[in-house]
Amino acid sequence: xxxxxxxxxxxxxxxxxxxxxxxxxxxxxxxxxxxxxxxxxxxxxxxxxxxxxxxxxxxxxxxxxxxxxxxxxxxxxxxxxxxxxxxxxxxxxxxxxxxxxxxxxxxxxxxxxxxxxxx
Amino acid sequence: xxxxxxxxxxxxxxxxxxxxxxxxxxxxxxxxxxxxxxxxxxxxxxxxxxxxxxxxxxxxxxxxxxxxxxxxxxxxxxxxxxxxxxxxxxxxxxxxxxxxxxxxxxxxxxxxxxxxxxxxxxxxxxxxxxxxxxxxxxxxxxxxxxxxxxxxxxxxxxxxxxxxxxxxxxxxxxxxxxxxxxxxxxxxxxxxxxxxxxxxxxxxxxxxxxxxxxxxxxxxxxxxxxxxx
Lengths: 119, 229
What we know:
The structure holds 2 protein chains of 2 kinds.
Chain A: H1 3-25, H2 31-49, H3 52-61, H4 66-118
Chain B: E1 3-9, H1 16-26, E2 30-36, H2 43-49, E3 54-56, H3 62-76, E4 81-84, H4 96-105, E5 110-114, H5 126-143, E6 155-158, H6 159-167, H7 174-184, E7 189-193, H8 208-228
Parallel strand pairs in B: 1-2, 1-4, 2-3, 5-7
Antiparallel strand pairs in B: 4-6, 5-6
Helix pairs in contact in B: 3-6, 5-7, 5-8, 7-8
C-alpha cells in the first residue's frame, strides 16, 4: 500500500467519523446505533495505519489476495448489521400494532363515555 | 352468555350496513363491532351516519391486526363467544346462533364455518379450491386433523381462544396459521357446514398475483408453528 493511498483512506475515514459524530450530536442517529459504525471505523483506521494487519488477517483466514479478505469481511459485517436491523423492525412493528390497537380501543371508550355524559 | 360478531372492514362502504343489519335481524343475541381498518373510502362516514358500533383504527394494520383488535375488544368487555364475520357480505348471519349452540353443546374451542362439508352455496374459484385443498392436506399432515375450509373467515371461538388471539395473532393471512397453532395446542376445533355468498362489492384481499406468495408464506408459517409446538 502506497503512502498516498494510506493518506487518502485516512482522510475518508476522518470524514466518515465526522459524519457519524454529527448525526449522533444532532440526534438523527441514536448513540447505541452508532457503535457498530464506530467500531468499523476504528478497525479500518488500524488497518490503514498498520497495513501489516491486513496481510496477517488474509493469511490467517487462508485467503490468497488481501482484497478478497476485505470484501469477505465487509460482506460479513453488512450481513450482521442488516439482520439486526430486520429484527429491530419486527419488534417495532409489533409495538406499533399494539399501540394502534390500544389507541383505537381507548378512543372508542372515550366516545362512549362522552355519550353517556351527554345523556 | 355474551356473544359478539367481529366485523373487520377495509373499504366496505357499500356492504357494511347490510352486513350489520343481517346480524341484527338474523342473529338475535349477538352484539357486533365493526373494525374500520383505516379505510380510504367512506366506510367511517357510513358507520357514523348509520350509528353503527365501530372501532376506528388510526393506521392500517391489515386483516390480522384488525381482527385482533376485535378480539381485544371482546376480551375487555367480557364476551364469552366471539365470531369473525366478513364485512363484504359473504357470510350469512343466520348460521351464527346454530354455530354458537354447536360450540357450547360440543364444548369446542373453535367452530369454523365450512363451505366444503355440504358443498352448497358459493364454492370459490377452481384455483382457490386447489389452494384450500392444499392447506387441508398440510394441516392434516402436521396436526393429524382434517380441516376442510382452513381459509374460512367465519370462525367462532370461546373465552379461551378470545384470550389467546387477543394476545397473539398473525399479522396477515391469519386463518390457516392460527388454526394450525391452536390444533397443535390440542384445542378442540370443529367445522360446521355453512353456505357462503359470492362477494357483492369490493375485491378480495388476495389478488391472483399475490396468491403464490400467499401459499408459500402461509406454508412456511404453519411449518414454523409446528417446530414450536
